[in-house]
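Fold it.
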Amino acid sequence: MQAHAVTTPHAPGSQSALRLRNRQAVVHALLTGGPATQADLARTTGLSNATISNIVKSLSQDGLAVTEPTTSSGRRAMSVRLQGTRAVAAGIDVGRRHVRVVLTTIGYEIIAEDSHSLPIGHSADEGIEAAARLLERLVAEAGVPRTSVIGAGVGLPGPIDRRTGTVLDGAILPAWVGTSVPDAFGERLGLDVLVDNDANLGAMAEIAWGERKDAQDLIFVKVGTGIGAGLIIDGRLHYGALGTAGEIGHTTVDPQGPFCRCGNRGCLETLASTSTMLASLAPSSTSALSTADIVRNGLDGDSATLRVIDDAGFVLGRVIATLANFVNPQVVVLGGPLAALGDVLLEPVRRGLMRHAVPVVGETTQVVTSSLGDRAEALGAASVVLRHAGLSPSLRSLLDGKHN
């Protein structure tokens, strides 16, 4: 991704203006993509290796960046990341039963995180208030000034109208439908707020924080009470016309199947969501089960749990196969609370993919579980803030090479 230039007071053709534009390009690349090798920065910005080296040295001398040994393509390299807590991003993930908040530096370091339980069916006001209190506590515990928080990213399970940031029908949080998230959160937090679907943010987290930084074509599938997909195509999130691309949970799998909350029958969500799995296991259990029980019992080899996981995983793989035939991704990443099952979930999903995908797609598409656990969506929300932070007034001094 090419860096964006910032208007400067220097004469357009002067050497000082050129140096400033180059510095801005490198800082922007590190903000939007996170830590990178000097070779990666050269490719991203189009600057020479020598220019990159000089800029990195200058940023390091200013206390704005650090370098660390790493490996790239099997070779030793030097990784560069921004540092400091003068600018901090907040990532907020609101789910059916929880809210999670993370605070990260501009160098993609996590400095604080925690979660809080929410009642099923909670209202937007309840969720926003819980998130605000949690954010304030984490800021205080991290010891950073409240003014250092440059913005908040918010993830919600369900379709979001990208034009307005409004929660649409079909969301797992029915009491939130019609809420303009940027306005409601922004008013309570006093921050600029960016909102996105949780699966989209999971996909962003994988390329910003996870093990798939080099993936240009990736599908992140969030499996929970609902099922959604975030699509990275040619290195960019694909939203569609309104921002609702990836709502695979309402793909019809069985036209004569169970009624879905969307009004149709036999949607993927009615066959493979955690709610459906829990309902299937309820008759064989003497006590109420949770998603954590599915994971624990599945890993322990409980036969009933394994059968339910196998059925759900295979039908999930079938729908992923259809999506993979269209997108032809390098990798499919399974996220959500069931990711902890590892191969227990991956095996039936891979079988479903192989059975229903075009052979070459099935054979070449990796299917893995997320390494980010239940923090993926919140991290993705924080990364969205950082990607949009390059031109914010609070970071102008950093871009211009001025620091306190």
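The mean pLDDT is 89.
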